Amino acid sequence: MNFTNTTVWITGASSGIGEALVHAFAKAGAHIILSARRENELERVKADCMRSFSIREERFFVLPLDLAKADSLTLKAQEALRWRGSVDIMIHNGGISQRSLARETALEVDRRVMEIDYFGTIVLTKALLPSMLQQKRGHFVVISSLVGKFGTPLRSGYSAAKHALHGFFDSLRAEAHNDGISVTIICPGFIKTQVSVNAVTGDGSQQGIMDDAQANGMSADECARRILKAIAAKKLEVYIGGREKIGVYLKRFVPTLFARILRTTKVT
Questions:
Q1: Residues ≥6 apart with Cβ < 8 Å to 49
Q2: Which of 169, 199, 174, 184 lies closest to 231 in space, CA to CA?
Q3: Residue 188 phi/psi, 5° resolution?
Q4: Alpha-carbon torsion 109, 237, 122, 23, what sign?
Q5: 206 has which bridge partners?
Q6: Percentage above 70 pLDDT, the chain
Q7: What is the side-by-side strand order in the sheet with 31-35?
Q8: Which residues are known to be catalytic?
Q9: Residues 6 or more apart from 227 whose CB is under 8 A from it?
Q10: Cα(167)–Cα(169) distance, rounded to whole angstroms?
């Protein structure tokens, strides 16, 4: 896979899947905009890539942002566009997960998850879309989740935000297809990252615990490799993970059985 001279913007680039994507795209020749809240971690990821692949600093642009601050994101998109004149691939990877029963989750927590995972993503998309339409090319890549296809216990707010992303980007794909705009939705299952550790609980505090399934999941590097393959092929929707991917098909073909399985499956 060759992405030489392609400009790729990755949110959530300071850790996990986002960090692995920065490395994968750097190796593939892309120019990369790295975004997340922690500027020092973005600089670390950039330095690691430069050292690992002997890449010059000019290939990277560190652009800190906070997806929860929607009012600031249009200006961030303008900064990204000024760097090289366009963004060819926008990878919406930034977000936050949740681990709490719906009845014990404060509405403010649901709103926070939706603001970060859904509205922040939509603001950046709408800010970039006019430039892509003018160029007649562009590719939005949305890192959703398998729970964007089916809800599970303890993830009501997170699953709702991911479902919302599917609805928006499925519509956008249909609307902008004739304008050269592609949309790829990636649905990871259990990937070995800190997503469960950083997940918010019902009162908004951090869970601070690694899920067993997450700890034993696919490596972020392997997940990133598969994502690049899907982007290069302009896939519409891709499921990445282990046996948990079966849930998508169980929900589709035997929903009653799947509902029974979800009620009795231990989740954390």
A1: 22, 23, 26, 32, 55, 60
A2: 184
A3: -75, 150
A4: positive
A5: 200
A6: 100
A7: 60-62, 31-35, 7-11, 89-92, 138-143, 181-188, 237-240
A8: 158
A9: 17, 21, 24, 141, 143, 186, 238, 240
A10: 6
5-29 tens-digit pLDDT? 999 999 999 999 999 999 999 999 9
Per the DSSP assignment, residues forming a β-bridge with 141 are 91, 184
Nearest to 16 by CA among 227, 157, 168, 160: 227
**What is the model's pTM?**
0.96
* Residue 84 CB coordination number (10 Å): 14
Domains of the chain and CATH, by start: 7-243 (3.40.50.720)
Token pair in block for residue 210: 């690694």
Give, to the nearest 10 degrees, the angle between helix 220-232 and helix 16-27.
60
List, in sequence order, every residue forming a beta bridge with 139; answer none if it has no partner: 89, 182
Can you tell me the distance from the alpha carbon of 101 to that of 153, in angstroms, rounded to the nearest whole number? 7
Tell me if 9 sits within 8 A of 35, measured CB to CB: yes
